[in-house]
Amino acid sequence: MNPFQVKNFARASLVRNKNDSIDAKIIAQFGQRMDPRVYQTTPAEQKEVKDLTKLLDMLKAQLVQLNNQLHSIQGKIARKALEKMVDKLEKEITKIEKKIADLVASNESLKEQFKLLTSIKGIGKLTAFHIIALMPDVN
């Protein structure tokens, strides 16, 4: 239950006194009359997908920075070092994308959401991963 809604319900009921007994009655009345939505926690897999998509975004931003630096570097040694870093970063990005795909595939709810999202024209797997990570349920 949203405490703000309960407080406003108590105000609307013209309840002026406040103690534990009165509060309990108000909360019970609110639950009976207003039929509030049941709060559902975010599944652990979805939280993990969210963390991994954030990491993926950070790694991609770093990759863009390294590629931009690579274009301006003239020295062979520095260029070679940057190319190695770019290569490692690309491999790590691929690993993270695979981990996200595996997590989504291992959870029926997330898998169904992914299937639904990717059926929409213009939404690819990475966009679907981000939507799944940020929204509680696309249904």
Question: What this model shows, in words?
Answer:
This protein folds into two domains: 3-34; 44-134, no CATH class. The chain is built from six helices and no strands. It has helices at residues 3-12, 20-34, 44-72, 76-106, 108-118, 125-134. Helix 3 (44-72) crosses helix 6 (125-134).
Please give a quick description of this structure.
With 139 residues, this protein is mostly helical.
Helix content: over 70%
Structural class, from secondary structure content? mainly alpha
* Quaternary state of the chains: single chain
* Terminal residue distance: 22 Å
N to C succession of SSEs = HHHHHH
What is the mean pLDDT? 90
Instruction: Please state the overall shape, judged from the principal axes of the Cα atoms.
Output: elongated
Please give the radius of gyration in angstroms.
25 Å
Number of distinct beta strands: 0
- Parts with pLDDT < 50 across at least 5 consecutive residues: none
Residues in β-strands, percent? under 5%
The largest sheet is: none
In total, the number of domains comes to 2
Coiled coil: 49-113
Pfam families: DEDD_Tnp_IS110
GO molecular function: DNA binding; transposase activity
Keywords: Coiled coil
Ordered list of secondary-structure elements with their pairings:
Blueprint: H1 3-12, H2 20-34, H3 44-72, H4 76-106, H5 108-118, H6 125-134
Helix pairs in contact: 3-4, 3-6, 4-5, 5-6
